[in-house]
Amino acid sequence: MAFKLPALKFDPGALAPALSAESFSFHHGKHHQAYITVANEIVAATPALQGKSIEEVTKIAAADPAQKKLFNNAGQHFNHSLYWLSLANPGTVKPSAAIAKLIDASFGDFAGFKTAFVNAGIGQFGSGWVWLVADGDKLAITTTGNAETPLTAGKNTLAVCDVWEHAYYIDYRNNRKGFIETFVDQLIDWSFVEQRLEAPGQSLDTGA
């Protein structure tokens, strides 16, 4: 069973103008699919990897310098899959009382969270990702470059914003800050964040 491009949980035009259908056409339909195609080719030629989840394949590849190509593509499949799941229809999802309390305990208030998240994204040089992760009984923000992911460090990844230029350039051109601000204000699916907190380690993929 090969890795597959995950279906979006909304119509590609539903997030406009925050993210356009054209943006999803290229980012979801082309960029993400390209990573899956290469990862599947490598896994198909490696019997020991077949039947493993995307999380397992990514961790195995990360631990083996000879599997850098596999890591780059499997890691991007995991990262992108979490990104799509991190998105909700604009304005439809707000943090529950429990999550809001956790945000306050971790960042002071939602404004503090937004400032920290946006600054982390702006500070990520080049292509990469801004992550919301579980950190004990609090939340934390971290960044990674290229295909790197906190998954390989054993972190429970709750949500992620893609700050590769292909994620936002169609709609925001070079305004990365504007894209990240919109992500925080309008696009984070906080119900998904809560699900990830309640069920750490749940796979995003059924396996290859």
Automatic annotation (TrEMBL):
Xref: Gene3D superfamilies: Fe,Mn superoxide dismutase (SOD) domain, Iron/manganese superoxide dismutase, C-terminal domain
The Manganese/iron superoxide dismutase N-terminal domain covers 3-87
EC number(s) from the headed UniProt entry: 1.15.1.1
Any idea where the Manganese/iron superoxide dismutase C-terminal domain is?
Answer: 95-196
Q: Which keywords has UniProt assigned to this entry?
A: Metal-binding, Oxidoreductase
Alphabetical list of InterPro entries matching this protein: Mn/Fe_SOD, Mn/Fe_SOD_BS, Mn/Fe_SOD_C, Mn/Fe_SOD_N, Mn/Fe_SOD_N_sf, SOD_C_sf
- State the source organism's domain of life: Bacteria
* PANTHER family, A to Z: SUPEROXIDE DISMUTASE (PTHR42769), SUPEROXIDE DISMUTASE [FE] 2, CHLOROPLASTIC (PTHR42769:SF3)
Protein's name in the database: Superoxide dismutase
Query: From which organism does this entry originate?
Result: Oleomonas cavernae
Lineage of source species: Bacteria, Pseudomonadati, Pseudomonadota, Alphaproteobacteria, Acetobacterales
